[in-house]
Design brief:
Helices cover 35% and strands 18% of the residues. The protein is of the alpha/beta class. It has a domain at 62-98 and 110-238: Vaccinia Virus protein VP39 (Rossmann fold, 3-Layer(aba) Sandwich), CATH 3.40.50.150. Strands 3-2-1-4-5-7-6 form a seven-stranded mixed β-sheet, sandwiched between helices. Helix 8 (160-166) links the parallel strand 4 and strand 5. The longest helix is centred in the middle third of the chain and has 13 residues, at 96-108. It starts with 6 loop residues before the first helix and ends with a strand. The mean pLDDT is 89.
Amino acid sequence: MKSELTPEQIEELKKRHIRSFCLRRGHISSSQERAIEELFPLYELPYEPDNKIDSPKLFNNNNPLVLEIGCGMGETTAAIASAHPEVNFVGCEVFLAGVGALSKRIHDMELKNIRICRHDAVEVVRDMIPENSLDGVHIFFPDPWRKARHHKRRLVAQPFINMLSSRIKVGGYLHCATDWENYAEQMMEVLSNEPLLKNQYDSFSPVMANPITERPTTKFNERGNRLGHGCWDLVFLRQ
């Protein structure tokens, strides 16, 4: 099945898109700063728009490749990578504290199967990831942009999802998770209407699992439980 992006949508994606994040300094610890200076260069995948990601060359193996968009502080990313050394992971994260924290986790846990790209994931997908090259994609707890006037900033929306889906191999998966019900409903609508994807379940995923990995419980789950929020997982397969 071919991509359904129109020429106008393709052109729009080439232009400066509305970012799904807002860069700000924020707090960064001394250990995270040291990790950025000393460790991040060991695991960095630089953003190079003219160079497509070559997973066998990057990891020196032919293992499946999973993209994670928004690694946060890296706890989930490192846990999944540790549990699945037979899978390679590329994580996109723009915030320095998260990049430093994940770099330190990779070093401390002696992980060999993670690379970090500190850049806008939309541009990484657009410019660096070939079509039909990913075995899976994780989008765990993206910023819900709660106010209605900010919904245009949400990551799980078109035309990005169509472009992202085209980068997944047939039979590969897209696993999204959110603890914000309104965003979960939007995710379901967007993914269900994407012709390149098919829901693995009849509705939301009944378990926190996908075809390759399980999603560990995160601070977002714990916070949601404390506040009485739900948590919604969606697993769609590329067709």
